[in-house]
């Protein structure tokens, strides 16, 4: 690729404007509950919660992280703010949102999510009869209920924070090293400095022996993507990695042969 600069997406970690809670939430009471209910709180933050309202729409994805930040992917704009748990309810501060135009049905879903989660008091219950995919049911003051299916976060699954890695992905696959009847991705590792300027790229392609979870490959495009890499066997001398797709940094149409 000819591009040497990359524009990183602005991540919603600076939430100082969204931290004020409504008066119904008393912080000291929430802290007491957190001390008394560590398992429930751990479950809330260990999973990503997914609600699919329609096959025609992207899912609503809810992330309640351990730093008490809430992130909501709506299929259009992303919502972000802060949350606390008082033992029965998830309470949210006023939400901020990215600003992007989307198809009307996507924006309608975003509006629904904003109305449900903004400065809300949500009764919360978790069904863990299926520990692989627990269910989180939230109910607002109007009696509207939404049930989310849990997907364990890789940080919880692999008990580590993971390493952020940038990979250039070739449009062409090669036979997998462990099973040549299967096709695997070819990748090069890319490095950037703090200003987002590309500083290094591997000279040769490497065949990745595992899939990049969440990544949709396109044989007509070359891409540079950001992934999180987790060592699944940290106790062994030879690491084995799992790769989780995060976002696409650059893409261009591959030359036709």
TrEMBL record:
Every DUF4377 domain range: 169-250
Domain DUF306 residues, every copy: 59-145
Alphabetized InterPro entries for the sequence: DUF306_Meta_HslJ, DUF4377, HslJ-like_sf, Hsp_HslJ-like
Name recorded for this polypeptide: DUF4377 domain-containing protein
């Amino acid at each position: 690729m000819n591009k040497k600069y990359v524009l990183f997406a602005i991540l919603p970690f600076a939430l100082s404007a969204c931290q004020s809670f409504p008066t119904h939430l008393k912080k000291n009471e929430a802290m007491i509950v957190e001390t008394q209910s560590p398992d429930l709180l751990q479950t809330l933050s260990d999973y990503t919660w997914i609600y699919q309202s329609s096959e025609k729409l992207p899912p609503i994805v809810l992330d309640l992280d351990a730093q008490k930040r809430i992130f909501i992917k709506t299929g259009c704009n992303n919502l972000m703010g802060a949350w606390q748990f008082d033992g029965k309810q998830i309470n949210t501060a006023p939400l901020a949102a990215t600003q992007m135009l989307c198809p009307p049905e996507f924006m309608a879903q975003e509006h629904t999510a904003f109305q449900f989660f903004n400065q809300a008091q949500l009764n919360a219950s978790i069904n863990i009869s299926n520990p692989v995919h627990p269910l989180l049911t939230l109910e607002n003051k109007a009696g509207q209920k939404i049930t989310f299916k849990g997907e364990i976060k890789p940080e919880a699954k692999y008990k580590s924070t993971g390493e952020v890695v940038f990979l250039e992905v070739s449009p062409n696959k090669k036979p997998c090293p462990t099973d040549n009847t299967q096709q695997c991705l070819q990748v090069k590792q890319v490095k950037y400095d703090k200003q987002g300027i590309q500083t290094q790229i591997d000279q040769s392609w490497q065949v990745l022996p595992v899939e990049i979870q969440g990544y949709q490959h396109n044989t007509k495009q070359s891409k540079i993507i950001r992934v999180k890499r987790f060592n699944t066997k940290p106790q062994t001398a030879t690491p084995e990695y799992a790769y989780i797709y995060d976002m696409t940094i650059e893409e261009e149409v591959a030359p036709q042969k």
